[in-house]
Protein: Cell division ATP-binding protein FtsE
Organism: Sphingomonas mollis
Amino acid sequence: MTTPISTTPISTTIVQFENVGLRYGTEPQAPSSYASPEILSDISFSLQRGTFYFLTGPSGAGKTSLLRLLYLAQRPSRGIIRLFGEDAVVMPRTRLPGFRRRIGVVFQDFRLVPHLSAADNVALPLRIAGLPTADIDQSVAEMLAWVGLADRAHARPATLSGGEQQRVAIARAVVSRPDILVADEPTGNVDPDMADRLMHLFGSLGNLGTTVVVATHDLHLLTRVPHAQMMQLDGGRLLDPTGVLRNPPQVPA
Ligand SMILES: Nc1ncnc2c1ncn2[C@@H]1O[C@H](COP(=O)(O)OP(=O)(O)OP(=O)(O)O)[C@@H](O)[C@H]1O
């Protein structure tokens, strides 16, 4: 007997949030009379493989908090988060590091290791994954060239400009070819030309199947990735409550 060939398309949804809420400083079981205000409320959306998303919204809207949920630094107070098809909320803590390794993060404050050179900072995820040294050296050299820092490989973070540190942080987040790249204001410290270049590079990651989520205040950045989808937060809520994502608006001239 032959096995029938399935005609069901392979799902490309890699992240799904359903009615997610977040309060800081309270356990989910705490009585509501003791609860701090909800920072994020009724957040529902899904992210597709290889797609680029901008997350926008005014300061304090909850962008960083939403990213923290996405890269599993924070558990929600309510709702469901599915990552790579698995429920990330009830997942045992022991499984979290394996999932986190599939997510590259560019932090707003870079978080470079101060006593390591630029090259050693970029190499960290590959060393943790146990790759052979020759492979690590080649990947690190390629990544530093990718962000225009080939000549600063041996520099320590304190001797780099803010924009150079930001580019090292980007190289470190991308070097292990993550399934998801999450970046919080990744161009806040670079000049407009470098911002354009970095957005072009981020935009090209979709061809490798990487899903990119960039949080930014910078409306001009939105025009730099024409194929990007947009998620807009305001006061802790996604503006479109159904989570349907739209193309970025035109920035007024
Ligand atoms: N660890 C925390 N404990 C308590 N409240 C927090 C914590 N982190 C953030 N908040 C609050 O959550 C709200 C959303 O903050 P968040 O940093 O997510 O916003 P944001 O949109 O990223 O802002 P910005 O663009 O200024 O970085 C703010 O009111 C902030 O004060």
Observations:
- Residues 133-146 form the longest helix (14 residues).
- Residues 112-177 form one domain.
- The longest strand covers residues 13-23.
- The CA atoms of residues 147 and 167 lie 6 Å apart.
